[in-house]
Amino acid sequence: MHTKVKVHLALFIVSLIYGATFTIAKMVMPEFIKPFGFILLRIIVATVCIFFFHRHYVKGAITDKKDLFPLLISAIFGVSANMLLFFAGLAITQPINGAVLMLNTPIFVLIFAVILLKEKLSWQKITGIIIAALGALMVVGGSKFQFDSNNILGDIFVTLNAIIYAFYLVYAKRLMVKYHPLTVTLYSFFFGFFIVLPFGLNQALEIDFANMPQNIWFAVAFITIGATFLTYVLNAYALKHGSSSLVGSYIYLQPVMATIIAMAAGKDQLTAEKFISMLIVFGGVYLASYKPKASVIQAE
User: Which of 37, 100, 197, 205 is at 20 to 30 A from 122, Cα to Cα?
Assistant: First the structure.
């Protein structure tokens, strides 16, 4: 399979998993596990999984000690701060606000990529991102999005999360190219654990695992292994072999996947408006990522 196809497949799987996460996470929080405790649990499980696979299949190491600081920055922006801000923001704002504000991420990815990586900014890429953004807004119901004094702090947290995660997708690109993606991800989660520990320790200790229903165990496993370990590894692979703006543009598929999953579960219905909105998103992402053969980036 061609590397470019693998990159798109990896990003599609990430969008699919994240699309399911919105529904599945609600089964767990806050009744069984509080948000910050859940973040710490996610990082612990993901770190153990990454360590196991890294030790048996990669065995790579950070050869330049100067890269330890960039890895710490990646841990702050890509693992700890973004997770903490998102959960803190989502707890005090409306879900529709959170979904819409997260759609800012690809915009900031594009800005940071141009500034830090000197990525070529084309009208095709800009147009594709704008089209995908409009389609995603239609999917999540942009007309219901509104600011008010009760939501403003949560909206600020979610927006900061979008900016921070966008910076990570661009900043970590150099590390992903220099080292194996799993090596970078392992160090990022290892550092991220110590950053999140003081925030989530008390809530994590309150988790009553003994009385947790079986379906909640499955939900926890999905979030910690699927929506944390697997998604970060796949995103890391995509960052190594594709552009940061391409990885960011796939965020627009997440509300589409969430809607499809909700319909499959009988919690939503397919309307002509939603179908058209999904087609617009797919069209925008395709336009933003399409490159003629002569201009395909070397990493691909």
Answer: 100
Query: Are 41 and 201 contacting, i.e. CB atoms less than 8 angstroms apart?
Result: no
Distance (Å, rounded) from C-alpha 109 to C-alpha 169? 7
User: How many other C-beta atoms are found inside a 10 Å radius of the C-beta of residue 285?
Assistant: 28
Residue 228 and residue 63: Cα distance in Å, rounded?
26
User: Per residue in 118-154, is it b (16+ CB within 10 Å) or e — as a string?
Assistant: ebeeeeebeebbebbbbbbbbbbebeebeeeeebeeb
Tokens of 233: 């590894």
Q: Which of 170, 160, 1 is nearest to 81 (CA)?
A: 160
d(CA 101, CA 211): 36
Q: Give residue limits of the domains in the chain.
A: 3-290
Q: How confident is the model at residue 48 (pLDDT cuts 50, 70, 90)?
A: very high
pTM: 0.79
